[in-house]
Write a structure and sequence with these properties.
The chain is an alpha/beta fold. It folds into three domains: 3-144, Nucleotidyltransferase, domain 5, CATH 3.30.420; 158-250; 261-404, no CATH class. It contains 17 helices and nine strands. It has a five-stranded mixed β-sheet. A two-stranded antiparallel ribbon has the order 1-2. Strands 8-9 form a two-stranded antiparallel sheet. A hairpin with a 2-residue loop joins β8 (298-303) and β9 (306-312). The relative contact order is 0.07.
Length: 405
Amino acid sequence: MCVQEKILGPRIVEWDKRITTKGILILFLPLKQGGKTMSKRFHGIDRHKRFSTICVLEQSGEELEFIAMCTDLKRYIRSLGSEDAVVLEASTGTFWWADQIEAQGALCFILDPHKFRIIKDSWNKTDKHDARNMAKALWVYQVTGEFGIPTVHKPQAVIRELRTLFSQYMMLNRQIRMLKNSIHATFGENGIALSSAKAEQLLSAKTGTRLLEELNISVASKTCIEMNQSLLWAVLVKKQQMVTEILLAGEQLRKQVELLITIKGITPLTALAFLADVGDVRRFRTTRKMNAYLGLVPRSKDSGGNMQSGHINRESRKLTRTLLTQSIHHVSRSSPYLRNYYCTLTERRGCGRARIALIRKTCAMMRRMLLNDEPFRWVDRTLFEKKLKQYRYLIEKNNEERKSA
């Protein structure tokens, strides 16, 4: 009887024999199921926009089925059950497909392709090889339990909804910035340097049109500014609507939001941005791991006993960092300790490093507040009650408007 039959037959027996195949050492140790049925089919799905390539392995590790081009993935998923385990690559829409797979009772893993070196470093990367490699990796992980597969965290549905809304919110901010810069550039071409007060009035929907008529600029420049003004005002309205949608979408996280806004400078929008970025704070074992995920920890290079610190990683999740940067001066005045910390660090290291350090410390405080379920130690009660009243009023008002509509 072969090794696989001894391990994966009807009666799974203890087996601790090492087998070397083509230089790869495999330890066959079956997972303890604790009374639950072990997965019998292992599906590796390489999903694309119009079709998917699927490889299915049976419990013995032999290939049961291979579908080179599955054009109806929904129908295929409906055929899955509790005895199936599926692995998908993380890409656009993967979380939605994972929800559909889990709804059928199947086990689903979302693979991180950047850390799965079999695919990342493969010299022969095709859909066929990717699907088979994923299925084999899933089979080895489920059968032996010795070799893990790098997966990504799947956040709750409310977190995913918030991330979708916040991505649109940040896009609107970029458009606003571009339109304002275009207006200022047009004035610069006409030799006009606007003061801050004048620029604010010109960009306002109430006074912008009247002030533009008073300025002596060319017809072409006036046409461009009028068009940019109208676009800017429309985007500003949409941005305010997006803020309302974000607050309503995050109503399930109301308890956490009301806890975090006890910090001066943290608005409900900033609190929801932090929760949308982090998801469940309990999944981070240390504060440093969470800050690294948020792109707040500087890169380090340690070689030959010499350690050098670099800049922060700006490619990580940056929503929290962006919004906190805009309100960090208010946060620095939330307690004597934070004020002294920020001022001292500004004098020694400069404003930029001090700002990032304070953001890092603020995120650590918010993590601890959520873990301990306790408010900020130096809470300003008057300011907190005002923010809480406005937040609750906005939620109740918009809920009533939705019900009446």
